[in-house]
Amino acid sequence: MSEQNVGAPKEMKTDLVRGMKTRHLGMIAIGGAIGTGLWFASGRVISTIGPGGALLVFVAMGFLVYFLMTSLGEMATKVPLSGSFATYANKFIDPAAGFAIGWNYYLSWAVTVTFEIIVGVTALQYWFPPDVLPSWIPSVVFFFLLFGLNFASAKVFGESEYWFSSLKVITVIIFLFIGLLLIIGVIGPGSPGGANWVYEGVDANGDVAKAPFITGPGPIFGMFLIAAFSFQGTELIGLSAGEAENPEKTIPKAINSVFWRILLFYVLAMIVVGTLIPFDNAHIMASNDVSSTDVGAVAYSPFTLVFAEAGFGWAAHFMNFVFLTSVLSCGNSGLFCATRMLYGMGNEGKAPKIFSQTNKRGVPVVALLVTAAIAGLGFFTYLLPVDPFDILLNASGMMGMFGWLAIAITHWRFRAAYTHQGYRIEDLKYKAKFYPVGPVVGTILCIMVVIASEFWVFTQKPFVFADMAMFYWPLPVIIILYFGYKIVMKTKIIPLDQVKFTVEYEKTVKGE
User: Fold this and answer.
1) 3 state SS for 13-32
2) Torsion over CA: 290, 294, 296, 299 (sign)
3) Other C-beta atoms lying within 10 Å of the C-beta of residue 131
4) Domains and CATH numbers, the chain
5) pTM score, two decimals?
6) Does residue 25 contact residue 250 with C-beta atoms inside 8 Å?
7) Rounded distance, CA 242 to CA 339, Å?
8) How do residues 167-206 score in pLDDT, each as one tens digit?
9) CA-to-CA distance for 506 and 339, rounded, in angstroms?
């Protein structure tokens, strides 16, 4: 029998339902990390820093993800709450930290829902131009499709995301298989061998460069943020903890399996693309602006180029279909993520309590409706004289890095409080490997990526304040959120001996 949350009105049902299985959690994390970053941004990374640089940044980000996911997994199995790292920042660091991280992460995902729908409409225009199918029609259809999947139940969301993500995974596997056949010369014009890894060509600046590394460390750091953006979404496992069946078993299994699959997919994909396509290929050096109505982005995807080289004329159509399902999958995950963040903040008092209200299926309906409304308001950006999504896209990676940084710092505080109170590490159901290396490396890398990734805005002459504002605007926002809440609510960093490891307010039922 379900129980009401402490402090909630008696008539208000505030229980989530544990309907997520291991296969749901695993595929959600994989699907969250296989999207636009892999389909298109990988080409930009290779053309900018060469195949060796691309392999380096994706491997580095893969290990960073592993450290952070094990940190999140340790906390999520001990305290399985919806709201994830923002909730843990509230419990283990300072309520102001939970407030800042929660609202920053919530708004980034809420706006992402709108963006993914618009990009999905762009993908559809590959087959149905606006003069044939007005953009507002698929926009409305996609919007209510995603809302319906999230409104049904956590189990329906998990199942839909499972199949969305399965298509992406199957596509990557097919791509790797075909790529291997091309590399060894079974199909296609003939094996290129390792020529493209030592290829000498002309880089994006018109200078002669030689692979595998065609730039110095500066541009490589710039690509770290794109690689990080590609991996972001894996933290959705933690956000689903409050609705996972038997989280002590399902979350560790999902985290352990997901990392190796994602790293395997990305590393092998970078090897295949780097081997088959020279870094100065005119197509991958072209703009990958997927928010444009120009369908060239689909044709210029490294995946499409490899399929085309194998003689598959339908490659662009197939990749466009996968791309369409990918962005809908990201929108689906984004709506779920933002809704659960708002639900968690409602439980904690960081948002109105009504956001923690759920229906009989355990869906936080009010939080979902408000999030959908914010996403719907995003469509009014069509009326603006400038494209606001340029700013949002450039900042999305940075917002995600703030979330990752919060995971690293929160895990350090979690362990410090846990041992300070006399608990034994051996008693944890899931222990993060290589602690404290994970939180330390995670903290350092996240800070370095945030600062260095767009550092060029400070070195350009003349200095352009608008460029700095466009790329770094999330930084002052999160600072204002933190100190504003801290000053108004007079919060303090929680002493180690007062940190609680119990689930005080969120009690859930099993099954549906």
Assistant:
1) CCCCEECECHHHHHHHHHHH
2) positive
3) 7
4) 17-459 (1.20.1740.10)
5) 0.80
6) yes
7) 13
8) 888 888 888 999 999 999 998 888 888 999 999 998 877 8
9) 16
